[in-house]
Amino acid sequence: MEIRKATPGDLPEIVNLLRASLGESLIPKSEALWNWKHVENPFGKSPALVAEEAGSICGVRVFLRWEFRQGERIIKACRAVDTAIHPDYQGKGLFKNLTLSLIEEIKSEGVDLIYNTPNTQSLPGYLKMGWEKWGKLPLKMHFNLSVGKSKSLSQVSNWESIRHLIQALEKTPKETDSVNTNLVAGYIHWRYVKCPLFPYHFISDGETYLLIYRIKEGKIGRELRIVDFFQLAGFDSNGRKQLNSRLKTIEKNESVRFTSYSGLQFGKDNPLEMGLMPVMSIGPEVTLRQAAMREETLDLPWAWSLGDLEVF
């Protein structure tokens, strides 16, 4: 068996392996999704390894490149994402071999850390390979008591109308000590406008703030899930009032049963009016693993948004 770097010519076989190993119940596997995720990413192409035997690919391991920013400091990261082992090769240590080999690969490139949000089945395996639990993200929910028939008035988002705001956000580093996703040029367009999995929408004044959300159908009703929030220095009390007023209008028009946000980006200066329900630590479980970085990653002042950690 040979473990080697994946090449563009491997893509059809990799996609077939992902389908055979993981199915498509949660996220449909396709070459278009792979290219958006692993080739068009503004942080760079994803490092990927494959295991090959007798001319066939039997395993694949991919890390998604990411960058965080703390003031003037750039932290190079990867997110442990796609992995698939052919059923005939499962239980033989191939997943671990591919993962540890890829870690050594990215260390030489100066990647500082790896992060992900593993499910309960995969978590023990990651912990054995050196990942550490940071903990579960806080989750805030607000239930709407009166829900009428959906008018679906917010389903079309004209992202071009806020192009100048997006450019300003990506050119203006946050003046904070917290660790946020580095808003490189093209990030917001790639992450939210071009995402092939589901549509994202926004609330904005076009000048000082941008709240990004998506509508999700669930067992207990329609959810408005807030995934990211960005602001410039001019965002003030009037902007807060406008934001919350527009959010309430969308909740009504979309017949939203509840609104949620999970993450650390709001902190104490939360601009959203989300009722009296307490914040619960039931969001995604975040794990971290040091690569080239020497300092303790768990102690960094993280300010993750759900958009950084959402499964895609």
Itemize the secondary structure elements and their pairings:
Elements: E1 2-5, H1 11-22, H2 31-38, E2 48-53, E3 56-70, E4 73-85, H3 94-107, E5 113-116, H4 123-128, E6 132-136, E7 139-143, H5 163-171, E8 180-181, H6 187-193, E9 201-204, E10 209-218, E11 221-231, H7 237-253, E12 258-262, E13 285-290, H8 306-309
Parallel strand pairs: 4-5, 11-12
Antiparallel strand pairs: 1-2, 2-3, 3-4, 3-8, 5-13, 6-13, 7-12, 9-10, 10-11
Protein name: L-amino acid N-acyltransferase YncA
Keywords: Acyltransferase, Transferase
GO molecular function: acyltransferase activity, transferring groups other than amino-acyl groups
List keywords for this structure.
globular, Aminopeptidase, 8 helices, 25% helix, 312 residues, 2 domains, 29% strand
Give an account of the 3D structure.
- By secondary structure, the protein is of the alpha+beta class.
- It has helices at about 10-20, 30-40, 95-105, 125-130, 165-170, 185-195, 235-255, 305-310; strands spanning about 1-5, 50-55, 55-70, 75-85, 115, 130-135, 140-145, 180, 200-205, 210-220, 220-230, 260, 285-290.
- It has 2 domains: about 1-135 and about 285-295, Gcn5-related N-acetyltransferase (GNAT) (Aminopeptidase, 3-Layer(aba) Sandwich), CATH 3.40.630; about 140-260, Aminopeptidase.
- About 25% of the residues lie in helices and about 30% in strands.
- Strands 1, 2, 3, 4, 5, 6, 8 and 13 form an 8-stranded mixed beta sheet that branches.
- Strand 9 (about 200-205) and strand 10 (about 210-220) form a beta hairpin.
- The mean pLDDT is about 90.
- Keywords: Acyltransferase, Transferase.
- It comes from Algoriphagus yeomjeoni.
- This is L-amino acid N-acyltransferase YncA.
